[in-house]
Amino acid sequence: MIAPREVDHVIVGGGLQGCLLAHAIAHHRPAARVLLVERSDRLCGNHTWSFHASDIPQQTRVWFDPLVTKKWPGYFVKFPGLSRRVGIPYETISSESLREATVRLAGGTAGRQSLEIVYGEPCEIVSPTGVKIGGSCRLDGPAVIDCRGCTASAAALNSVGYQSFIGHEYETSRGWPVAEPTLMDVRADQACGFEFLYELPFGPDRVLLEYTRFSEEPVCSADRAERLIATRLAEAGVDAAKLVRTERGCLPMPYAAAPGTERMSVAGGYAGGWYHAATGYSMPLAVRFADLVAKAAPEHIAAELAAVASRDALRRGFARFLNRLLFCLVQPTDRWKVFRRFYQVLSEDRISRFYAHQFNVADAARIVIGRPPAGLAPIRFAKSFFPRTGPGLT
Ligand SMILES: Cc1cc2nc3c(=O)[nH]c(=O)nc-3n(C[C@H](O)[C@H](O)[C@H](O)COP(=O)(O)OP(=O)(O)OC[C@H]3O[C@@H](n4cnc5c(N)ncnc54)[C@H](O)[C@@H]3O)c2cc1C
């Protein structure tokens, strides 16, 4: 049973966004009283959150860097007819390391901040400053921040494609032959839509191999994933590998224009549209959101977020256009060509800005100007820049 008390921030949802926010507040407002409410019995789920180092604004590194699990100097992409090493440093945070760091924060060892975590309680947001925890306790605080993740059920959405994953993490007796990640290994036959293997070597004896599929349905076949992963293990010369962790999940990738949404409170992460629609990844925008909310006076948070969202509107629109291109205009078996072209024509600077959601008009033009993807009539391609608003995620 939760007792009512005075707090400065109530964070609803202890996933990626909620935990990043707790760390940003601990840095910028060490005396703030923060309540983090998570409906399950532990924080952060079961993920490996990767990102380009350039996704993270320099001024946030001071609180963000201690959370990073692993860094690499660059990565590879492999397509039929194109193999490229991209010299942009790449980094990862695991659920485990973010969970441990957040629990330590609540333990009070990190300074004066008082973070309290409540587990196992669903939280309902009942006003911009009020929440109901576990159906009984009502709390009012100057800032309630919705970090509940992707709350819309897949069945209620349309105008979305899906990015589905099945990842296996292995301990290998023999060293993994490649020291840097491979973001896309697109050598499967592409009969099931765009599919590839993602490879993260955490060390000489530990690797994550993740099967990823972009398709119209929010599913991917475990058999297919296991076959491709087994082929990669054999190719790497690893005959004995112990499976130590499995992760799976699915991200909606909206392609309609974002509808205006009435919200009860300030919302971050997936709940608030603070993710990159074209990559499905949250890290670049979730870090910006956390830093901004932590620095702002509670009464100014909503206005400051609205200003950033409005400056970002064109980028958000372009990311959705890319999803339309992928899911509506290009044949499923040709989707990989859109990504090959991306890595063929873009410089590292442009790639960095794209993933960081900081791309400019010239970057966007470089991504799409040229011959339209195979089989796509130029007039249809041009028309698809101008979407009708449709239901979908914000
Ligand atoms: C397999 C997989 C791999 C991914 N890889 C990457 C990656 O490499 N890089 C990247 O940037 N992104 C990645 N993503 C995307 C990323 O995981 C999500 O975008 C991110 O977790 C969204 O953060 P969030 O905090 O909004 O939601 P979540 O992390 O889903 O957190 C939401 C939290 O809120 C809790 N909650 C929900 N409702 C309530 C309630 N009523 N009361 C209390 N608590 C509630 C949930 O239990 C959950 O803990 C991946 C996703 C998947 C599925």
Shape: globular
**CATH architecture label of the largest domain:** 3-Layer(bba) Sandwich
Helix count from the secondary structure assignment = 11
**Range of helix content:** 25-40%
CATH class of the largest domain: Alpha Beta
- Order of strands in the sheet with most strands: 6-5-14-15-16-13-17
| Averaged pLDDT | 88
Distance between the termini: 34 Å
Helices and strands, in N-to-C order? EHEEHEEEEHEEEEEEEEEHEEHHHHHHH
Number of strands: 18
Q: What are the SSEs and their pairings?
A:
Elements lengths: L8 E4 L3 H13 L4 E6 L9 E5 L8 H4 L5 E3 L2 E5 L2 E5 L3 E5 H12 L7 E6 L3 E5 L2 E4 L3 E4 L2 E4 L13 E13 L9 E4 L8 E10 L2 E10 L6 H14 L5 E14 L11 E2 L15 H13 L5 H11 L1 H17 L5 H11 L2 H8 L5 H8 L9 H6 L11
Parallel strand pairs: 1-2, 1-12, 2-8, 5-14, 12-18
Antiparallel strand pairs: 3-7, 4-7, 5-6, 9-10, 10-11, 13-16, 13-17, 14-15, 15-16
The structure holds flavin-adenine dinucleotide.
